[in-house]
Amino acid sequence: IKPFIFVAPMGANQIQMRWDMNYVGYFLEETSDLTFTNWIPVTNSVSLIGQQYSIAIDASKPNVFFRLHKN
Fold first, then answer.
1. Sign of the alpha-carbon torsion through 5, 1, 67, 55
2. Are 23 and 3 in contact (CB under 8 A)?
């Protein structure tokens, strides 16, 4: 089963992305174009909140796509 990313607003220019801690070894990647295979690791700090990993993302960047990728 692939992990599911929960997305929630965190104020004017940020969103919070969360995924269950059962998915050890997964990390968040981003790209601005889904036709390319060049996914870049998101370097923001990841926190553990309850039973979920959490990361704050700048929501002001246009056309950014995210995925969880297992290392």
1. positive
2. yes
